């Protein structure tokens, strides 16, 4: 698989390590009333879709940036690649706007 | 039809015209007492033991494809009982004991071959860990022997003992482990279940569950609605997709694991060798092919095929351990998809929906568990209580803190 890094261009997936579902960016609020349940779901439960999957890849043998890669888990086709920090910042901006 | 040497001789002299199909191809009935979703090894074993050991009647196994077409026919056929933790080892020891008597039990030649499994050791720390695991195995009624370098050399003189990175310093030998003809396991259980009245319905995909007031009433399938008092789901690899239809999210990711077989060679590896440090394990089939594999591809995948970097990694590991492997030609490689759970251990449990039961999360260790998984799932379906050896395989164990993490990797499924 080739991951089209937003800063470095196309790179072999072998340069990366894989973490998992990109929802791991959205850590629950530890002060909420249902924090124990929310952290259980955050840490242990997964949608695990057959099809499009947003997931975290780490460019360990490269610039050590985290990426959010949208990939099809049935065909291995990579549909889009974003910097994880951009995704996290956009999510934070959305939360503060609410 | 019961198989025997006498029957074989009779058929041999009469032109083999008397053999009949090993199981029927029935139309689904409107309702059953027990519906097992998934006609893989575990589902067929569940139906077999439900009928045979627990006297249950009106059982159906629903299979999307055909019997033996899933992971039961795609694995590397190893059986073993060499786990460390209390939640696991009694279960796998129970499974190995069932394997030891399986062929007599279901009257089918599954070619169970207890040829021994050797886990290689390369350092003092690994030796300590192997000794500890060996002791845990012995305490649970299994067998283990710690070998030194010379002990390993006597068994496998052709290994690369003086590798610069991972010199071989010994091994943990589990003599009762071995290999089984995997397809025959599926066929044997299917035939055994069918003989006891189980309907095995192939080409029948479950598309949904009918659930009312928190109780399951049956399953919607590609061949119409089938009513059921109890539904057991046993579809490892696709567990998340099927249980999603019942509104459940599981502590599981689906990953692809590759396996390989070489051209047929003269007998040269009598047992199973595992080289954990090099991500490689190998045995030789009775046809002569070297059957080997290594790590997961590491990313979520529902494709029954992997990518080339892992092919390269496995073969590098293999050649560093067995230099002679460089002369063999690769015949086939393939991939299977598996439920990787959050602690590397499986689930055999009720769900929060009355009458709906779940069996899955087998990671890449489902084949060896087939008999005990079927037996324990049948026990749960019939009695609503877990079998004594499977009490730890609960779906809520991450909430209650009772994880069974053999490798101590935490909630990172691709590392188990």
Automatic annotation (TrEMBL), chain A:
InterPro entries in UniProt: SoxD, SoxD_sf
Highest rank taxon of the organism: Bacteria
Name this polypeptide is given: Sarcosine oxidase subunit delta
From TrEMBL, chain B:
Name used for this protein in its record: Sarcosine oxidase subunit beta
Sequence ranges assigned to domain Rhodanese in this UniProt record: 34-78
Keywords of the record: Cytoplasm, FAD, Flavoprotein, FMN, Nucleotide-binding, Oxidoreductase
Family in the record: Belongs to the SoxB family.
PROSITE patterns: RHODANESE_3
Organism annotation: Ruegeria haliotis
Database matches in InterPro entries: FAD-dep_OxRdtase, FAD/NAD-bd_sf, Rhodanese-like_dom, SoxB
E.C. number(s) listed in UniProt: 1.5.3.24
UniProt catalytic activity: sarcosine + (6S)-5,6,7,8-tetrahydrofolate + O2 = (6R)-5,10-methylene-5,6,7,8-tetrahydrofolate + glycine + H2O2; sarcosine + O2 + H2O = formaldehyde + glycine + H2O2
Swiss-Prot/TrEMBL cofactor(s): FAD; FMN
Source organism, top-level taxon: Bacteria
């Amino acid at each position: 698989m080739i991951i089209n890094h937003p800063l470095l261009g196309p790179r072999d997936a072998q340069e990366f390590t894989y973490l998992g579902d990109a929802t791991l960016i959205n850590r629950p609020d530890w002060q909420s009333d249902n924090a124990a349940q929310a952290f259980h779901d955050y840490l242990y439960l997964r949608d695990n879709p057959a099809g499009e999957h947003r997931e975290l890849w780490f460019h360990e043998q490269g610039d050590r940036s985290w990426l959010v890669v949208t990939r099809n888990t049935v065909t291995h086709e990579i549909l889009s690649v974003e910097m994880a920090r951009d995704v996290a910042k956009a999510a934070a901006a959305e939360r503060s706007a609410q | 039809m019961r198989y025997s040497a006498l029957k074989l001789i009779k058929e041999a002299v009469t032109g083999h015209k008397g053999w009949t199909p090993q199981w029927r191809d029935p139309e689904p009935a409107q309702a059953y007492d027990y519906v097992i979703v998934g006609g893989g090894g575990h589902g067929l074993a569940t139906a077999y033991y439900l009928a045979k050991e627990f006297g249950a009647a009106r059982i159906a196994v629903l299979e999307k494809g055909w019997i033996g077409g899933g992971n039961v026919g795609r694995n590397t056929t190893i059986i073993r009982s060499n786990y460390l933790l209390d939640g696991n080892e009694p279960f796998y020891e129970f499974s190995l004991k069932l394997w030891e008597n399986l062929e007599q039990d279901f009257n089918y030649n599954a070619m169970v071959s207890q040829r021994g499994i050797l886990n290689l050791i390369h350092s003092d720390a690994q030796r300590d860990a192997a000794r500890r695991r060996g002791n845990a195995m012995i305490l649970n009624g299994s067998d283990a022997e710690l070998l030194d370098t010379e002990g390993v050399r006597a068994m496998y003189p052709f290994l690369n003992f003086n590798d610069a990175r991972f010199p071989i310093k010994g091994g943990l030998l589990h003599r009762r482990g071995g290999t089984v003809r995997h397809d025959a396991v599926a066929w044997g259980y299917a035939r055994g279940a069918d003989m006891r009245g189980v309907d095995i319905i192939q080409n029948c995909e479950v598309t949904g569950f009918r659930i009312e007031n928190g109780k399951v009433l049956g399953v919607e399938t590609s061949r119409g609605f089938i009513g059921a008092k109890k539904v057991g789901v046993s579809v490892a690899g696709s567990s998340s997709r099927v249980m999603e239809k019942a509104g459940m999210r599981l502590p599981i990711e689906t990953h692809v694991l590759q396996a390989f077989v070489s051209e047929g060679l003269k007998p040269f590896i009598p047992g199973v060798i595992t080289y954990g440090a090099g991500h490689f394990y190998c045995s030789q089939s009775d046809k002569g092919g070297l059957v080997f594999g290594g790590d997961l591809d590491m990313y979520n995948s529902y494709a029954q095929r992997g990518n080339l970097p892992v092919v390269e990694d496995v073969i590098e590991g293999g050649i560093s351990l067995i230099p002679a492997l460089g002369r063999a030609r690769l015949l086939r490689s393939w991939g299977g998809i598996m439920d990787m759970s959050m602690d590397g251990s499986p689930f055999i449990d009720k769900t929060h929906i009355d009458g709906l039961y779940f069996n899955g999360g087998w990671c890449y260790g489902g084949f060896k568990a087939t008999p005990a998984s079927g037996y324990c799932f049948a026990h749960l379906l019939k009695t609503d209580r877990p079998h004594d050896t499977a009490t730890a395989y609960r779906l809520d164990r991450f909430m209650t803190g009772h994880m069974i993490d053999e490798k101590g990797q935490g909630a990172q499924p691709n590392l188990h």
